[in-house]
Design brief:
heterodimer; A: mainly beta; six-stranded mixed β-sheet; four-stranded antiparallel β-sheet; 10 strands; B: mainly beta; seven-stranded mixed β-sheet; globular
Chain lengths: 107, 121
């Protein structure tokens, strides 16, 4: 199975500042990676697919990058509504696996 | 708009059974692969099962294989998860989710609100 490892486990960033979350796969997954946002008490919401394609309606302060084994989710200017747990998921090969999640808070 | 509504969660004793249902609306259910995901308290997400649009292609994670069975009724726009021989480690929020369409798009584009399953004596 492909193991997905996110870093850091938690992150506190000031409003208006940049937040960066990393996701590393145990083997190459090309660009078969998505990011989900999960706010407290809610289901995950799809943010980015194919490593860098923002879903419709997702603010452009969210961006994804990377290919192969190393990926990054960047929030360019953190807003209060961005407080959430962020999950990456690979869909290169079954079983399709998730990272452990990164909790993003306001500093 | 797409809606997925789970039902059937609750408290069950170890070794017991439970059946989750998911009512889908707002899209052509019979055209979509569907999945069950779960999230144990304070833990990450786990993809436990999926089923093809016609029901012939089924995947189950090793953690639930032989105990959980996914099924669907396209006439009722409904997805099911029959859970047998439940264990304490099956305690989680269970989500119904739609697999995004398109070649190789094995990710979830819509999720239900989730159903809590607690396995405890």
């Amino acid at each position: 199975d492909i193991v997905m490892t996110q870093s850091p486990d938690s992150l506190a960033v000031s409003l208006g500042e940049r937040a960066t979350i990393n996701c590393k796969s145990s083997q190459s997954i090309k660009n078969y990676l998505v990011w989900y946002q999960q706010k407290s008490g809610q289901p995950p919401k799809l943010l980015i697919s194919w490593a860098s394609t923002r879903e419709s309606g997702v603010p452009d302060r969210f961006s994804g990058s990377g290919s192969g084994t190393d990926f990054t989710l960047t929030i360019s200017s953190l807003q209060a509504e961005d407080v959430a747990v962020y999950h990456c998921q690979q869909y290169y090969s079954s079983p399709f696996t998730f990272g452990q999640g990164t909790r993003l808070e306001i500093k | 708009q797409v809606q997925l509504v789970e039902s059937g969660g609750g408290l069950v004793k170890p070794g017991g059974s439970l059946r989750l249902s998911c009512a889908a609306s707002g899209f052509t259910f019979s055209h979509s692969y569907m999945s069950w995901m779960r999230q144990a308290p304070g833990k990450g997400l786990e993809w436990i099962s999926y089923i093809s649009n016609g029901g012939s292609d089924i995947y189950s994670a090793d953690s639930v294989k032989g105990r959980f069975t996914i099924s669907r009724d396209n006439a009722k726009n409904s997805l099911y998860l029959q859970m047998n021989s439940l264990r304490a480690e099956d305690t989680a929020v269970y989500y119904c989710a739609r697999v995004a369409g398109g070649s190789g798009s094995w990710f979830l584009d819509y999720w239900g609100q989730g159903a809590l399953v607690t396995v405890s004596s």
